[in-house]
Amino acid sequence: MDLRRYYQELRDTEGQIADEHVIVISKATEDGGKAGVRTEVMRATAARLLVENRARLATPTEVEDYRAALVNEKQAIETAQAAARLQLNVISDADLRSLRERMKPGKG
Length: 108
Hints:
The chain is 56% helix and 13% strand. The chain has 108 residues and is an alpha+beta fold. The radius of gyration is 28 Å and the shape is rod-shaped.
């Protein structure tokens, strides 16, 4: 492997990537890399993955889908956290009647 050519290709590839953070989609590799995994990485990491043929850049549609999935996941987490904070009190019928009596107008 010619290291000069490798690093030149890295610099060229990194220069072609416009955004600082990009979405890449992994490719299947001989060492067990799983195809189709979407990941947001920095430009330099994306360039290395592209040069080493371990991933490809996501299409604009795939980027939108990825971002929408993140938003949905965040909302699901926030909903679960809100449900965990929800407090319920169980009171007996006698306590309920007592509260209602105290809340009637004219009683203090």
